[in-house]
Amino acid sequence: MVEHDPQVMLAADRILDMGPGPGERGGELVFQGTVGELLAAKGSLTGDYLSGRRSVTGGRNLRPRLAGEPVLRILGASANNLVGIDVEIPLNRLVVVTGVSGSGKSTLVQDVLYKALARLKGRSEGQPGAHRAIEGQEAISDVVLVDQSPIGRSSRSNPASYVGALDPIRKRFATEPLAKERGYTTGTFSFNSGNGRCATCGGSGFEHLELA
């Protein structure tokens, strides 16, 4: 199992630690053995952090919220596995919602907050998740959800392909002497269609295999 979660690593029967650094600084077997041995090992960043010898600290001082600054309040969110929680989200700054898989991040942000705000702004994006109230919505004019859904007709669409930014690049490639000699067209240099995309993955960048 390839894993980074401390709880999973601490429950392992045996650990192989790769390193000593990321990217080109990796490729070596730094440690192999039991968790107890890893916690006492020297030269392993994983062991240092798991044992508490090192810790992650904030890289910068966070700007404190001042009295009177606008804030969104989600009151009594109870959709899915949320249990009547109240949440304050300060406005005019970058806010990150984090947590382990299945902890309720998407339910809180997408199902409760986004759908409720959209309804308050006169749009229907489906039934909001159960909640008591949303306060502070008058401080914002609209809400937009940007998720991982394809932005075009293809799942391979991205902002560059959607706005046509790649068209002049493909045209330029097609005018090269070698491209003309081989009969290449602009479509040959498309990773979304025709002969330009990978024949194995169809331009997706990966192969999806269904398990029986």
Kindly describe this structure:
The protein has 212 residues and is of the alpha+beta class. The chain folds into three domains: 6-51, no CATH class; 71-139, no CATH class; 159-196, no CATH class. The chain is 24% helix and 13% strand. The protein contains seven helices and five strands, in the order H-E-E-H-H-E-E-H-E-H-H-H. It has helices spanning 6-10, 35-40, 45-51, 105-120, 159-162, 167-174, 177-181, and strands spanning 15-19, 28-33, 71-77, 85-90, 133-135. Strand 1 and strand 2 form a beta hairpin. The longest helix has 16 residues, at 105-120.
Share of residues in helices: 10-25%
Order of helices and strands: HEEHHEEHEHHH
Shape: flat
> Total helix count?
7
Mean of all residue-level pLDDT scores: 86
Number of strands: 5
Give the radius of gyration: 25 Å
User: What fraction of the residues are assigned to beta strands by DSSP?
Assistant: 5-15%
User: What is the structural class?
Assistant: alpha+beta
Number of domains: 3
Describe the biggest sheet? 3 strands, antiparallel
Q: How many angstroms separate the termini?
A: 22 Å
Low-confidence stretches: none
Strand order in the largest sheet: 4-3-5
Question: Mind sketching the topology for me?
Answer:
Layout: H1 6-10, E1 15-19, E2 28-33, H2 35-40, H3 45-51, E3 71-77, E4 85-90, H4 105-120, E5 133-135, H5 159-162, H6 167-174, H7 177-181
